[in-house]
Structures are given as C-alpha cells and as structure tokens.
Amino acid sequence: MNAASVWLQLFNSFGTTALFIIGLMAMAFGGGLWWAERINRKRRIRRRAIPKEWPVTTRRITANTERSVWVWLRETFPEYFVLPKLAITRFTTPTSHAQAQQWFNILGSIYCAFTICDSKGEVVGCVDIVTGSHNLWRGNRQLKQSLLSQCDIGYWVVTPAALPEREAIRAEFLGDNLANSVTVESVSPVDSQPQGDATM
Length: 200
Known about the structure:
Layout: H1 3-47, H2 64-76, E1 81-87, H3 100-107, E2 111-117, E3 123-129, H4 138-150, E4 154-158, H5 166-179
Parallel strand pairs: 3-4
Antiparallel strand pairs: 1-2, 2-3
C-alpha cells in the first residue's frame, strides 16, 4: 500500500470529524472577530459621548481692528450684508463633481475677513485686512485674487488705518451704475470701538 492510499484511507475514516472540527474553528474565529468589533464600536461610542461640561468658552468672532473695518463696510454698503470670516466654499462650487472632494480639501479652510452679499445671498465682493501685526500670506492672497476674479467677485485688501475711498470700493464691487444708487450713511447702532479685545 503506497502513501497515497494510506492518506486516502485516513481521510475516509476521519474526514467527517475533520470537517466538523474545521467548521467549529471557523465559527470560533468568526465569533472572535465579531466580539472584537463590538468592543471597538463601544469604545468609539464612548469616545464620542457628549460631555456634561464642554471645555470651551465664547469669544467674539472679530478682533478690535476687524470690528472697525466691519463698521466701515456696513456704512459703505448699507444695502448689503457684510459677513465676517465666511469660507470661500460657501459661495463657490466645483465645475467637476468628480473632483469636488479634492477642491474642497484645498479650499475648505480658505476664507476672507469679510464677504459682502445681497439679499439673495449672491456675493459681490470680499475684503481682507492687513495690519502691522497681521500680514496676509502672499500665496494665500494670490489664490483668492485668482479664484475670485474668475468668479467675477471683487477682492480688496485694506489697512484699518488707511481705508480706501468709499466710492472707489463700491464701484469696484458693484459697478459704476449701482455704486451711486444709494446714499452712504452712518450705521449708528454698531459701536466701532467696543471695549475689550478678541483673538483673531
């Protein structure tokens, strides 16, 4: 009797038992995986649990220098909304849905100090601020200039200590016809020199 015959005889004798044992081992392995996944899921849920007391506090959305420009913009564009720190992805959309996530990852953290929009939510212009202690990164500025220009949205960078002529920025954002359609008045309810300070 050769070796092959011996193995065949052993398989015929113990084949059913071997298959039964293998099945039990597979079930035990699968059960172990299921239990491990269940434990990990519970741990993830515990990590995401809402705390009784959040370790955060409130702050103003603009610093003092930004608020002075905010007031100035509201006075310059009284018939428009001036929104602080609005992400560019809120008013732009990719032309290719296949690359939407890629461009969102690139632009998702990009915003301008102030965005001016009409009552329909259409943006007419964006403003950034530079001060002695806060300079705008050149690459960031060029990115905004290129992107907003392509979208026909005006973009200005201003200095709080030397703001441009109101008529000039209105003409840039609205065009000559609309720029002179409303008399620019002071927005008195907003305090342009609030007490305290805020982190940018």
